[in-house]
Amino acid sequence: MINFIKRKISYVISIALLLLSIYLLFISIHPASIFTGPERWIVEFLSYTSHGVNYIILKSKSIWKDYIFLINTKKELNILKKDLELLREENHRLTEALKAYQRSEELLRFSRKNNLPSAIGSVIAYDPSPWFRTVTIDIGKKHGIERNMPVITHQGVVGRVINVYPNFSKVMLITDVNSSIDVLDQRSRVRGILSGRSDEVCELRYIKKTDDVKEGDPIITSGWGGYFPKGLLVGWVTRVEKTGGIFQKIEVSPSAQLKSLEEVLVIKTQPELLKDKNYIEE
Amino acid sequence: MKKISLNALVALFVILIQSTIISRIDISNLKPDITVILIVFLGFNVGFNHGMILSFLSGYLMDLLSGSPSGFFSLIKTAGFLQSYLIRRKVVTGGSLFFFIVVGLISLLEGIESIILIILLGIDRSIVYQIWENLISYASLNVISAVFLQTIIQRFRKPSLQEGV
Known about the structure:
heterodimer; A: 282 residues; alpha+beta; six-stranded antiparallel β-barrel; six-stranded antiparallel beta barrel; 12 strands; 25% strand; disordered C terminus; B: 165 residues; mainly alpha; 0% strand
């Protein structure tokens, strides 16, 4: 038997790995079994390493901007200009720090104004796959983050937490194909479901042809889905088509800059408590 | 054991590059997938067992960091390696051009396999049209990335004694 396995080791490995992949797919259908035991540690390790790589990228960008890019100019400069460079570098660092502070301040002001308990997190990694849209942020269970908590910026809704690890969380963006949010047209109060398309824009579904939705209308959360408080800005209607079928084809551009996310705000309220509460709009 | 650890490190490195640097690239809402280039490279250059384990690992790590269902990319990447390995064995010709063609072909096959899995798993169908519409662009982007990577590698690689002669 052992000799047979040794002779056919390639077949054994390939069949075992393919079966393991299929098994993983099957267990992923049951949410309770996802990411337990060693998988959690792997994700934690990956996230820490991503954090490190991200830090190196940002530092390298800064070094490139401040030194390498200016190397030819520096040759022509005298000692005074070197001093100026140092001041510029310091200024650049301070400006970056100020911008980060302003962004955090804006997020906190937004959170305080709406009386929402929240935590600020930084985006450290993006989804490596070409078809899904998630980001990893540097706050997790230790910071009070839980599954399904809404994630926003001062510009609007970003998505919701789908996996929580001790120090990191995975956030599904509203543009991901698995994302669906119950929303309202702020002007006409027409209700629909906003779904992601793994694209730059989202699709507003189940809006009848007789319903009044126009380009430029702001779309806000309805508070009915159970995850998001009512009245958060999600995006703007960018295209309305009334061809074929009983529903309109409506595209919505997210108001938050999802491609260049840096800091995000996680609303630390249990989704159940958000039901029927008009936190924001009031 | 040493080989497996090394495999895991290589897979980890590629996934980290993909989720931090490559993910920042955005060309018409598409980004290159260097794991495709990795698995084709493995299919061409390493043994069957070694390549199978490494491609499974890269897919599994991708599953952990991605919003995909667990096992989705593990299966696709393992199948991708098998396909590139079989193509390499059946076709005698080698060379860079052939490698780039296989990268394009495996990218197309991965897209089709993704569509099949998405339908089987009952994920929202709108992504199927999204993948189908972008399949050619995605494959072309991966081929361009493979050409770009090869140019960089050749630039930094020292010419061997044989090449000098």
